[in-house]
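W.,

You were right to be curious about this one. When I first looked at the sequence I had no strong expectations either way, so I just let the prediction run and decided to look at it fresh. Below is the sequence, 169 residues in total, followed by the output.
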Amino acid sequence: MISSWSFSLLAQDSDFIKEYIERLENSRDYLILVAESMPEEKYDFKASPESLSFEENLMHIAWAMDWHSQSLMGGRKARDWETDTELKVDNKSKKEMIATVRRTFGKTIDFISEFDIDKLGERLDYFGLDRTKRQILLLLSDHITHHRGQMLVSLRLNGLVPPRYVLYQ
């Protein structure tokens, strides 16, 4: 009985990863549509002085994906925000930023595809909160959605119609 229970939990975790990757791929595709919808000359648009710009939101999504997967869950030393320029705006063109985001999604999807599902229950300190690695993945999805939502508002404030919402992402 215990053996079948353990097998059932592993199958659920395997399904979780498979479904999560599908969601992340859909999220990537929708984010790219959003990024392509803003004219490059408006990439520095801010909804308010204290807001991130459209381009900063885009690159922040890439930064957060890298940190959540590679550093927090994978144990790689975190990038230094002050000196690392790969995942920052740093005079990148619209095309370069979109390529960077696409590449970062790819690395994140590869990392999660190969992630040991036995480690999903491991607990980490997440800004002072005790969270499982499974929760970290869910937090990453929320984070992407949060910043993409700000980008959608920027499109509207510039009189642009955002791409039609894509379900399951």
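Here's what jumped out at me. The domain at 2-157 is CATH 1.20.120.450 (Four Helix Bundle (Hemerythrin (Met), subunit A)). And, maybe more interesting for your project: The two ends are 36 Å apart (CA to CA).

Coffee later to discuss?

I.
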